[in-house]
Amino acid sequence: MLAAERQAKIVEIIRRQGSAQVEDLAQNLQVSTMTIRRDLEKLQEDDLLERCHGGAVAKQEVAYADKCTSHKDEKRKLAAACRSLVSDGDNIYLDAGTTTYEIAKVIQDVSDIMVVTNDLEIAGLLKNSPAEILLCGGVVQKSTGSMLGYYATQMLENFRFDVGFFGAASINEELEVSTPTVDKAFLKRMALERCSRGYLVVDESKFGKQAMAKVSHLADYTAVITDRNFTEEEKEEAKKSGVRIIRV
């Protein structure tokens, strides 16, 4: 079994069970405990799980309250850069997240807009604004205040958007966007496909990380709006891949 295949199985086991011991994983996968420990170290570096005494536990989504206080000034600057991308009368999709919450603040007074979102906090913010709001139904992920699952995706099948703004949990060295939750990855992909223009809005902290479920590649977006200082090598790779970057 290749190392990548074995590590994928480890992630699958831990996400299913919530945790696992080194000895149990070694017996299950028929390798040494030393091999499992190296695998767990690599998976922790990739932000796919968290090590604990004698084993590892599943990586948890960051709670909404913690996200709100993280990189707040950067998120506000990124949101301000998005205001010019919205026009009167636009149908807009806002992905769930604290960066898109800041975007909601700066666009809420644009004339005659319709905002569709799967974020309860964004809907609560906009309920007293002139904007028309449509909330995707579904199962509530209480830790993040977002709606996920079958009913949310079914609603999105019937919509088309002039512009969409998306956040990300992780962006790896291959410029791929990923998230810890499979249902969330599927919903994000579906929403992006339905946008005439789709923007990924992310601060520096989201780069160099890897979560379990791939959402997209940076080239899938109209542009990436970020405060990251890319290296020359990264700029060259982005250009080669067709990624457009708007640096704030």
What does this structure look like?
The structure is a single chain. The protein has 248 residues and is α/β, with parallel strands linked by helices. The protein folds into two domains: 3-58, Arc Repressor Mutant, subunit A; 65-247, Rossmann fold. It is 40% helix and 25% strand. It has helices at 3-17, 22-29, 33-45, 64-69, 72-82, 98-107, 120-126, 150-156, 182-193, 232-241; strands spanning 19-21, 49-52, 55-58, 91-94, 114-117, 132-135, 139-141, 146-148, 161-166, 170-171, 176-179, 195-202, 213-217, 223-226, 245-247. The chain starts with a helix and ends with a strand.
Largest sheet: 7 strands, parallel
User: Poorly predicted ranges (pLDDT <50, ≥5 residues)?
Assistant: none
What is the topology, as strand order, of the major beta sheet?
A: 6-5-4-9-12-14-15
| CATH class (first level) name of the largest domain | Alpha Beta
* Share of residues in helices: 25-40%
Domain HTH deoR-type: 3-58
Keywords: DNA-binding, Transcription, Transcription regulation
Protein name: DeoR family regulatory proteins
Pfam families: DeoRC, HTH_DeoR
Summary of the model, kept short:
By secondary structure, this protein is an alpha/beta fold. It is 40% helix and 25% strand. It has helices at 3-17, 22-29, 33-45, 64-69, 72-82, 98-107, 120-126, 150-156, 182-193, 232-241; strands at 19-21, 49-52, 55-58, 91-94, 114-117, 132-135, 139-141, 146-148, 161-166, 170-171, 176-179, 195-202, 213-217, 223-226, 245-247.
Write the layout of secondary structure elements.
Blueprint: H1 3-17, E1 19-21, H2 22-29, H3 33-45, E2 49-52, E3 55-58, H4 64-69, H5 72-82, E4 91-94, H6 98-107, E5 114-117, H7 120-126, E6 132-135, E7 139-141, E8 146-148, H8 150-156, E9 161-166, E10 170-171, E11 176-179, H9 182-193, E12 195-202, E13 213-217, E14 223-226, H10 232-241, E15 245-247
Parallel strand pairs: 4-5, 4-9, 5-6, 9-12, 12-14, 14-15
Antiparallel strand pairs: 1-3, 2-3, 7-8, 10-11, 11-13
Helix pairs in contact: 2-3, 5-6, 6-7
Keywords: DNA-binding, Transcription, Transcription regulation
InterPro entries: Carb_Metab_HTH_regulators (IPR050313), DeoR-like_C (IPR014036), DeoR_HTH (IPR001034), Tscrpt_reg_HTH_DeoR_CS (IPR018356)
Protein name: DeoR family regulatory proteins
